[in-house]
Amino acid sequence: MSVAGPEDRPFTAKEAKALCREAERLLADARALYDEHTLVHQSVKQALGAFRSRLARAELDAIPVTRLNDVTGGRLRIGALERAGYTTVLQVLESSPYYLQLVPGIGAQTVSRLHAAARQIARAVEESVGVRLDTEDRGPGATDLVIALHRLVDVGPDLPVAVDTARELSKRIRPLLTAAHPARGRLRMMFAGSGRRRRAREALAELSGLLDRARETRLLIVQVTTDLLRPPVSEFEAWTDFEFRASDYYSLLAELAGEPGSAIEGLLPDDLVAKVGAQELDETHLRVSLRGYQAFGARFALTQRRVILGDEMGLGKSIEAIAALAHLKTEGNDHFMVVCPTSVLINWVREIHARSTLDAYPLHGSTRLAAEEEWVRRGGVAVVTLDSLHRLKLPPHVRIGMLVVDEAHYVKNPRANRSRAVARWCGSVERVLFMTGTPMENRAEEFRVLVSYLQPDLAARLRRSDDVIIGAEAFRKAVAPVYLRRNQEDVLTELPGLVQAEDWVEFSGADLSAYRQAVAEGNFMAMRRAAYAVPDTSAKLKRLLELIDKAEAAGLKVVVFSYFRDVLASVRTTLDGRAHGPISGDVSPARRQQVVDEFSRAKGHAVLLSQVQAGGVGLNLQAASVVIMCEPQVKPSIEAQVVARAHRMGQVRRVQVHRLLAADTIDQRMLDILRSKTKIFDAYARRSDLAESTAEATDVSERELARQIVEEEQRRLALGAFTPGSVTP
């Protein structure tokens, strides 16, 4: 007897049995993966819980016993406890009722209240304690957690896809097998009712189609299960892998431990938060797990359509953009475009390939036309430089699903050619995402310009009204629908500390002579690098060598930044050539990435030299934990950018930033002026909403800054009266 399918496809009883057995094996494979993943996941959560308890104990041991009164409204006799030697909440928590009652004036009822208050504080600490893994503090709890995490991280980006697929297969196959059961025997099928026979035939047909489609899926499930079943690695292997893939470990940790909602949301209004939260985010085309704040950023871009993502540098804005593109791909969009500075073009292509299934085409160099033709034909992401965007012409049938403009502060001048090109494209594309960690470098008007490309009506409302600027707080509230920013300290609680030091030196005789000559000539740039004019006696170079020697003794990698090529050349010569780079403006983006890769792969200590303009954008330098700035920069955003190359997601060591400064020179004058610039950025753009600030939003230009400093130094050193136009750039 044969069993006909709904389309008269015959299944003999033997074929039905074979089909069901194959479906049972697939179901068993799916269950094996699901069960093994559950066990490994539970082991990680246990290790995380134990580690958090250790961290909480350390914090409780630092909380003074007087805090118990805050919980009970001052009703406890804390003075008696302190006189008896109880100084911290942890000591009270771990002390038995018997010993506490030995304290004069402490009875059974007071002991009960003391323990209740201590437990309340302990619960609050455990819930809020930040989990930070330190490669220099590999205690038992931290090591157990890293080893447990390694089992999940090492499987790679296929893990979540495989687990979701296994879960879905389990849901579908089980009821189909039940429905198909009568078809496994001629007699069963003969005595089944007509309704059951029909359902059995339908179930067999559906199982057959499902198994045909699941050939590759089954291989994925078996491979991932095999990876999960591997025994735990050694302590050395786990910590070594953590150093190379720290961001993957912390992404998983954030998923397990959760991230604070207010930090993820960037202080957006509640109604907008709800709207963004309701936005679906399909991760089918992603090859990376998103942090909670990253998923929220991608949803914000999708919900609001034309926005500025202003997350602080080092938080992974590119991943948020790629996630938005990947979602739009699932909705049927085929062509996307990323516009960026030339220096980061290669990095964008690599990120798109590594983080998603999307194809990326660099429309740059000798292969530009061929890449453009292939992109138009096949779809994917075209990566175009800011300076070549104006040359790009597309066929009418190509529709851009989303335009991403990286380092968007480069188009803040509406009269520049690249700004005009970006504005034209913004006018023809429905979805636009601007990305910049420094949306305002000098004045609030620059921020308004960026908003004008996206929401002209909103930008118009932000302009002066009755000659009065609307003020910082109102400004942030007004731009909330178009601007999202999260800062490192808010969302990367695991990020190692940032230690900033000002290393002041006294000029040598030769340094001072070179400096006085530059001041007399009104040569601003020569004043900035006078400390390196005579390398053999340079006080700054001497201090730089001391810092590098200390880093070498500790096995730490160092990156040295300067605005000037000749300063970097002096540093390289002083180091006898034992440095990578320098990375400068005339080094191609591909070569820059190659230099960084060589520096990162070097075992132990290494030094990388870079101009701030070339190395401050697009390059990831998490391998470095010591940053040395040879001189102050004209804009605070420039220094923030170069520091963020090292102090970013994936960094596993505390980052030391050293600024080499010469006393009573241009260095001091620049710091004083630049601090006022930083205040303006903090007031208007650092947070997405709510902070107190002056309403003033004007600032000196770079030329005016140079004029002002030269004039002050000529006056202070009595080197002649300043005359307009006498400053040499």
UniProtKB/TrEMBL annotation:
- What GO molecular function terms would the record report? ATP binding; helicase activity; hydrolase activity
- SMART domains according to UniProt: DEXDc (SM00487), HELICc (SM00490)
Stretches of the chain forming a coiled coil according to its record: none
Q: Which residues form the Helicase C-terminal domain?
A: 540-706
Entry keywords, A to Z:
ATP-binding, Helicase, Hydrolase, Nucleotide-binding
| KW ATP-binding (keyword) present | yes
What is the superkingdom listed in this entry's lineage? Bacteria
Ranges for domain Helicase ATP-binding come to 298-457
Which Gene3D superfamilies does the UniProt entry name for this protein?
A: 5' to 3' exonuclease, C-terminal subdomain (1.10.150.20), P-loop containing nucleotide triphosphate hydrolases (3.40.50.300), Tandem AAA-ATPase domain (3.40.50.10810)
For this entry, the protein name equals Helicase SNF2
Per the UniProt entry, what species is this protein from, by scientific name? Planobispora rosea
